[in-house]
Write a structure and sequence with these properties.
Distance between the termini: 59 Å
Number of strands: 17
Mean pLDDT: 88
Low-confidence stretches: none
Shape: globular
Number of helices: 10
Structural class: alpha+beta
Strand content: 25-35%
Helix content: 25-40%
Oligomer: single chain
Amino acid sequence: MAKTAIADIIVPSVFAPYALERTAILSEVIQSGIVAGDPEFDRLASGPGKTVNMPFWKDLTGSSEVLSDSGSLTLDKITTGQDIAAVNNRGKAWVSNILAKLLAGDDPMRQIADLVAGFWARDLQTTLLKMLDGLFDNTAGVLRTAHRVNIYTDVASGSITDAMRLLGDTFVDATVKLGDAGQKLVAVAMHSDVEGLLRKRDLIDYVPDSEGKPVLRSFQGRRVVIDDNCPKVSGTNSPAYTTYLFGPGAFGLGNGALDANEAVEVGREILASDDILVNRKRFILHPRGVKWQGTPAGASPTDAEFATAANWAKVYSDKNIRIVAVRHNV
């Protein structure tokens, strides 16, 4: 009896865009509005180089002047700045002993694509959180002062008070960290321990999804993303948690255009009877207003390099950087 191979099911020109679309659908950070696709980022990610330059106009400054019939107005000017983003070149390979059990499904390509897309959705979220590790590094992160509320105290669990926890009042302190721009914060990412505490306090609301099912979590009107990669750093007596708040499109995303056979390859190891699926991506994921200034050791930065504080520099004014962190107890 003939054996169905992955190569019989997956057509690269069909699979590549399908998996990309499914990744966006399955990604919580994209669906919550934290990450927004940008056609300009798509164009930049499709070009050459390890980094891309993104010049921008700075806001007008100064004050108005009183008109006079004996003097002229003072000439002022508009200035520019430059944001810089790293271009990521990444890939992942799988063999059929991981995927074979799915080949009997009603729509095997859909099954495989969902697994691949689910992997990339999780991987994108992990990379985003590693960038935040660098931006809010407790010693040298460029956002650790103007964009962070620190209410953590390293005390024994029995001595933790609500003033040290992320609750209603302390969350409000975070939302006003950006002044009047704080009202634009739309989503919050937190560790499951934090979400558990909020649920115990009956502070988590459940919002119906498109099918009317109450599955979308909300905290003070902001959509909740739960990820245990959010920092939980051990202390002498109690761990320090970091919860993040985001404005819409705090991170920009662009997917580079790869040839279908560059993005997806399938093959077979005849002697081992293994089917192989390789998926490659070239993309930009960038926190708007904080430029990348690192020098990666490889073709593009690793997550560890993104998590290094010295690799980032602030270029936007604080109110225009749509990210806030709270460091707290539970």
